[in-house]
């Protein structure tokens, strides 16, 4: 297995590469995994989300245990929504409560698939080859918005706010997802602990089927869906999602900040 991360340097530059023994061996990027020759100490770098996806494809009802609890049939094709690029944050970044929403905010600990090659109408074999590696995703949801309007379920709005998609801390290539579990804790109390082997559609199946619906680009992320134990986050609480072999992703929900009123000077009062 190899671990890949993305960082900001002290001068504001962004570096991506393979992490080994406290150093970043810089590469051109996910789409061009070619080493630049630069080797940087991690002590001088600030972790970012390990990729900058153009889109995050987030699945619903992709685990047998949760489908059984909800009384839902398992899908033959991925059931998904799109989270915008602006919703992505990295490890340690704050999840910000929207100023327009005072209701329940939920966490969902998930495995994330990171695309490494442009992918369209892919076979299972091509889809497997297009997977760069795996990461951790917290698919955050403004839960009470979903059915606020009885005429239109608001999946994209409820899950698309800025900071509502935490990704990190790393991408791991060569990761055996079948043997791993997702463990989610809320302020140190375990809330989720489920096996990834319970997935309805495997990562390769997800990539293949979704690629027949839309182009998948390098750096795009597919969030594989969650299982039992989804719950709400209080303002100030910290959600930590761990997958052994990838690491831990921790983010804290911060309260909304009241917007300051805009003062417009009248003529003669400047």
TrEMBL record:
Native source species: Paraburkholderia kururiensis
Single Gene Ontology MF annotation: hydrolase activity
Gene3D superfamilies hit by this protein: Fumarylacetoacetase-like, C-terminal domain
SUPFAM superfamilies documented for this protein: FAH (SSF56529)
Keywords: Hydrolase, Metal-binding
Secretion signal, residue range per the UniProt entry: none
Presence of keyword Hydrolase: yes
Identification of the protein by name: Fumarylacetoacetate hydrolase family protein
Domain Rv2993c-like N-terminal as annotated: residue spans: 4-50
Limits of the Fumarylacetoacetase-like C-terminal domain: 55-253
PANTHER family: ACYLPYRUVASE, ACYLPYRUVASE FAHD1, MITOCHONDRIAL
